[in-house]
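Help wanted!
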Amino acid sequence: MGLDKIGIAKRIAQELQDGWYVNLGIGIPTLVANYVPAGMSVEFQSENGVLGMGPFPFEGEEDADLINAGKQTITAKAGASFFDSATSFAMIRGQHVQLTVLGAMEVSQNGDIANWKIPGRMVKGMGGAMDLVASAENIIVAMMHSNKIGESKLLKTCTLPLTGVGCVKKIVTELAVLEIKNGAFHLVERAPGVSVEEIIQKTEGTLIVPDIVPEMVLA
Amino acid sequence: MNKTVKNVAQALEGIESGMTIMLGGFGLCGIPENAIKQLVKMGVNNLTCISNNAGVDDYGLGLLLQGRQIKKMISSYVGENDTFERQMLSGELEVDLIPQGSLAERCRAAGAGIPAFFTPAGYGTEVAEGKEIRVFNGKPHLLETALYADFAIVKAWKGDAAGNLVFKGTAMNFNPMMAMAGKITIAEVEEIVPLGTLDPNHIHTPGIFVQRIFQGEVFEKRIEQRTVRKRN
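Answered by r_m:
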């Protein structure tokens, strides 16, 4: 139960602020761009070298020289810019980008994140994720609360090779919004129709639950 | 100065087995596709290739992997290539995976005469193993060294006989950094224009970084993820 991918993206979009530059990772994070609140001006950066990413092109207008970090064809809005990879990561490491949204395989209660490798089974590489998580002041992880066989992905300690340490401060899953502080997950909101008990049961790491847990309000 | 060479064969003269070669591109965007096909034809092997990705199974650097011409890959993300993953997991292919920003900066550093630099990327992960750690502004950083190459092969949109290059869109990516880092840099361009045609105000890579330039014969410019929206 809980939210679908679009619901997660919509909830994350509520965290955007006017004037921010935002880097969106591959998968659910990419969808956030579709739900920028009306009247808000936000620019999306893609680490392969574009600021001011627009929507997907119309059929027949795809340009092989214009893609995002997920290798998808995109468009550039008026006011966009292109730049090389060193400049792109200067924006990221130099903290000129205000928010990073990315996916994760595991997150631990002290804010460690793992999302690039399963030893002996899957090695895709970290891409820009290590640079992003090591530098961003504001990181939101978009993820499912449990893996395909029902094991919690919100852990006391990550079991997979890390992408970054102590860097995640906020997580949005299909069940809840959680913050990480003082070495624990803090339940902030629950998804419509999801019980606090279910969230407790599906969170392996230490979870602090306040007396009142408001339900998310999604447009 | 005229750096123009007739064709891809002349451009790649001197590349031998066992060398370290940088190849520009992000995914299949902005890769020197004519030069890669020529490397296949030349049959050089035991190569160390520095490139952000490894192409797909049947295109880009995937072509060199298929022929087992690559001994070692230095990349940041290789998710789109099954041949690569298989050769790596079996231990046949040596792989050094490094954060994308560190990869770009290590190329840039080599070209800029900076042997090493500190970055926060990878601290606390296996990327940091064996590397010097120092704290700056209260935050731990690791020492990354410059990446050098015998040859750098880059791809640009337009260029001139002086070696000046202009890139298009996100096909720029790693190409400018790698152009700086190669002992010999070869530029593959879609169009060589007469000297004086490119506005000096709008040159991305000044000709000093380029030793040879050629116009590619065929540009397939394959798209990895064709994503479109419907017209209303």
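OP: Thanks! One thing I noticed: DSSP finds six helices and eleven strands in chain B.
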